[in-house]
Fold this protein.
Amino acid sequence: MYALDIVCKLLLYYEDFFSIPYPLKKLDIFAVPELRVLAMENWGLIMVRQKLVVYNPHMNSLRERRVVTDVLAHEVAHMWFGNLVTMRWWNDLWLNEGFATMMAPKAADHAENSTLRTTQYFTADVALKALSSDQHLRTTQPISLKKNSDRVHGQDSRILYNKGATVLRMVESTIGVNVFRRGLNPYLLKFAYSNADKNDFLASFALIFDESECREDAFVPSNFTVSDFIDSWIYQPGFPLLEVHRTTEHFEISQTIFDADGNTVFANLQWKVPIFLGRGDKRSIIWLRENETVMLHDENRPFLIDIDAHGYYRVLYDGETWNDII
């Protein structure tokens, strides 16, 4: 059966990725004909909507195969991130679901030997859906709510899952893939069979990141902390619009909140923004802090911001710059 074969491969992938063996003696996959959600990650017993389990590669489409693999990869990730270590309170649900959503395409590509190239769909399947929901400030919300908030049970899953995943991928791209991965193991070991929160999660990265060889690999300033960087992204609604303007001497990059509805209530919100610059094959990161403007000098050739779609923001170029790009 396709689903069973994939789950076995996913287990091996996550055991290697986290450097922690699957802690239970077995993992059952239970097909439920009328399950309200696609799947549920009970520890040791993943419940899956029946049509996903009975997938037949000779009858179903490649797109359906990708959905099956991605859903199963998401649920298996929860065996460690959500079950082995569980959030302390519902305000950190974004961390559990965002992490599983971010990891699923990586695990799916590994299990399928990259046949599906699921990671290439992350921007369309995850990031753009989050941006679409988050651009309407009258209805959106931060991905992390205050404890005991009366909105805990009414949170938008597109914000929790998709924005959470995109923000975490932005963190991974900023501090480096190796640093991000190395920070997961001590976190999972320290809080195994117990509860943790966002601060516990970020503290594990701080320990790894402070090692000199890690700091040298990342495009971050010397006084950088992961917690200081991520707070504005999880406690504020919406996302920034980066505006690029060319002068006679340099380029200026500033930020304002993106609001499709023109609401001025949140007009003063600002973020610590990692600007991913691309020119040809070269990549670099510069930082745009709250209420500041970044100036780029000697930029005679066209450049693109966030060419690999690792940031959680939109970009607006002035007319002259955009004409040079296209």
Notes: The chain has a mean pLDDT of 87.
